[in-house]
Description:
elongated, disordered N terminus
Amino acid sequence: xxxxxxxxxxxxxxxxxxxxxxxxLEGEIMSGLEDVYNLRFDDAERKFKSIQSSxxxxxxxxxxxxxxxxxxxxxxxxxxxxxxxLRQSSDVIERADKILEKDERNYDAMYYKGMSHxxxxxxxxxxxxxxxxxxxxxxxxxxxxxxxxxxxxxxxxAYMGLGLYKIALGFVPDKFKWLLSLxxxxxxxxxxxxxxxxxxxxxxxxxxxxxxxxxxxxxDEREQNDNRAVELSxxxxxxxxxSAVFRVFHASLLLQSGKTNESIxxxxxxxSMNTESFKDEITKSASAVLGNAYFRLSDFxxxxxxxxxxxxxxxxxxxxxxxxxxxxxxxxxxxxxxKAVETYKRVRKDFINERDGEVDK
Length: 361
């Protein structure tokens, strides 16, 4: 199964549930991450800036604030948040380098530097930006995190970054394998999954992140456990019942697993609680799930209705031809041939080979 980097990263707004004393640095980080996780981005930004004021020499506040721009740039595909993230992540890397000049074994500095490089690489790949620059950042991130776990094997959060990099390389198109050979890397999806399991079990701030990605990649391991992906996403909904993003995520996995009525229920619940950040993205994603779910139930009127809503929020970078085709077929089966033809004519004809599958074309 081909899994796009965008699909993977779009869900990466994680934190973890720990019993950390309120008022401690870790407690303040966790509180901000909880806000991110529940899409309260304005609250999260205030908390991360407060950390910067209270702990100006700590990298965590700057790093996690930069991720807010990362999550803004990813679905919107706009230059402003993309460039802002590049500036913020460069600042984190520069701050980390200054710390490492004085203390080359500062593990936190290594972690935030490595993860900043990794996020830069993933965002550039996701938005089809400079491939060579993305490879360079990915290379730097991997080497930094790999060195970190050699020096401190129990720095478990770093394993998530290593695991995602291994998996991402496993999905690089064949035409770019030469580039991986040039920089001395190769993808290893199974090894990446094992690294994610390690960070999910033992990480400090990456347990939920790792659970998200494991639920995605479990879809490709049906011989081991058909229900693993749905079970993991269900745990996320249980742990964070007010998070619309996890509701949509769970709904999409339910739909892929053939549990159509359950997916409709979860998608509708996500829409009913869609009051925080990323309203448009939640509406778009939930509408796509509902449109395809009702199509499976032969309710073509509702299928067309929700897919039309999806199209209102879709941007040029979305893979929308499959949804457009489903919507056209829905109009055909409703007896509206002219509307169907009109819909077919709206399909996108410009493709990005590294992103779009044969079905889209």
